[in-house]
Request: fold
Amino acid sequence: MRHIFTSLLLATALTAPILADDVIAWRLFVADHAEGKVTAVDAISGDTLGAFALKSPASLVAGESGEAVFAVQGAAGQVSAIRSGIAIDDHGDHGDIEVSEPALVEAVISGEKPAHFVEHDGKVALFFDGSGKVDLFSPHEWADDGKITESQLDSGTPHHGLAVPWGDFTLVSTANAEDEKKPRIGLNVVDASGKLVGETHACPDLHGEAASGNLLIVGCGDGVLIVSGSGEPQVTKLDYSGLPEGKTTTLIGGQGMQYFLGNYGADKVVIIDPAEAAPYRLVDLPTRRVHFVTDSVRPKFAYIFTEDGFLRQLDVVSGELTQSVKVTEPYSMDGEFSLPRPRIAVVGDKVAVTDPLKSVVHLVDVADFALAGEIAVEGAPYNIVAVGGSGIQH
Reply:
């Protein structure tokens, strides 16, 4: 998930004073577990700003610019865009902020089982599991103008895959079309016309990707693929050397520091730094992991919610769990994967934790790691993203 943070440096005018206000605005967008609905909440006041009807329950992705949140409705075969109502224009020494009402964009993208939605360098690749097709488009054009200009690639066969834009190229998963289970076998690099560049990069059980700094990694059953390069992407394999048997399938990239955080077994996470001689550091958790995120404003920290109801702070520099607080009643990881369980998001100086069985979002203050209130959200609040920052309003 990506947030906007702009430093505020007010220049002194030599002629006449500039009339401006410092404004901080943060919004939470919360998808319901049972219904096709996303609720927008002012994270500072706790006020509900709107509820947007969708075709089915959604996973949420915050756009890199923060101007929109995208709701992927796999069961309904469509993706919707919601304008966040927060726009920050970076002027170098300060940022101008405009705040308006959030709004659902009328135009939608439709296809067979949309799943992975990946934005990189201002372009989105949307993978459709049901067809194996990939749509490429500008998220800014969609959110700002309500228009969608797409180009499409074909991965070759339907499968649970992913694609990532990379300049003039696209990274696309490939699967065994001859096997009815369609196992993922590798990663292809294709050019703008969809033509394969080089050979397929072997990546059995491919699942999960993340970007940090100028690197991207993709999870495999036997290691991770490291993608780099400013032109044609260069792809290398980093084996799981020094780790017990297992694999990472969910990855998040660090912001402000180049590292990656991934799952590794039910009760562990792994910190990955490809530049280090020992690139993997395994972190044991007291119990099974439910969800985890990285912190873009305090880059050395990440947060992990575990099934005992605790939110835990991870120092990714030391590799140690440093603070914890009990937030909810236990949410066991036994049972179906799709059961409603908490999700977390960093919202300014707090961490928001959804509690779907209690119809609330809890807030934890990052500084003292203590409960800092809760926000009521109707239904079963589940997936959550935060959008916001600070700036000058003239």
Observations:
- The chain has one helix and 35 strands.
- Residues 1-18 have pLDDT under 50 and may be disordered.
